[in-house]
Amino acid sequence: MHFDIRELIDLEKLRNIINLYGYWPVWAIVFAESGLLIGFFLPGDSLLFLAGFVASVPQSSLNIGVLIFGSFVCAVLGDNVGYATGYRLGRRLFQKEDSWLFKKKNLEKTQNFYQKHGNKTIVIARFTPIIRTFAPIVAGIGAMRYRTFMFYNLIGGFLWTFGITLLGFFLGKSVPAAQLDKYLLPIIGLIIVISLLPSIIHIIQENRSSKH
Q1: Rounded distance, CA 108 to CA 176, Å?
Q2: What three-state secondary structure class fits 211?
Q3: Are 136 and 79 contacting, i.e. CB atoms less than 8 angstroms apart?
Q4: Per-domain boundaries in the chain
Q5: What's the pLDDT tens digit per position in 19-44?
Q6: Is the pTM for the entire model greater than 0.85?
Q7: C-alpha angle 187-31-171 in degrees, rounded to nearest 5
Q8: What does the DSSP assignment read for 18-61?
């Protein structure tokens, strides 16, 4: 029996899903990953990249302008929820028991990241999975001045949503429509690499620091 992995990743099926559900799943995941404790495992980078790619497909139901603007708003709002959570719950989060959704080590890792990079952590964290979710929470715990937080929040949200979504969009535009299925698997592989790259760089940097 012949099996082709491409049967599992049908661009036409993906397009139909987007046509059915529209922008809301993308926006909801961006919002949740940006500031809800349960959102750390969500694939924000890959989703934005893939949504941008799908928006580039002829006759797609996604408008790239609406997609990016909505994602930007949800990213900024999500960070605000994370900031409010940290500001109100504060140190109680460090006393919270671990569960399958919440790991105290993620909060502690983000706190160390914040101590190393300062206020610009809010921008850098946008491109670092897990840290992205906990950075606004730690900013709230540390009672960062809200005006300062919002300044970096807007910059980080803009660079993240516009940059990654447009990268997927223009990559999709550069691929001939007739050959989209042929290039889909390599593109999905690229999405995975892009999503993992910030974490890999961070791990390498941490290893170098520990050796020194």
Answers
A1: 46
A2: helix
A3: yes
A4: 5-211
A5: 677 788 889 888 988 877 665 566 67
A6: no
A7: 20
A8: HHHHTTHHHHHHHHHHHH-GGGTTS-HHHHHHHHHHHHTSTT-S
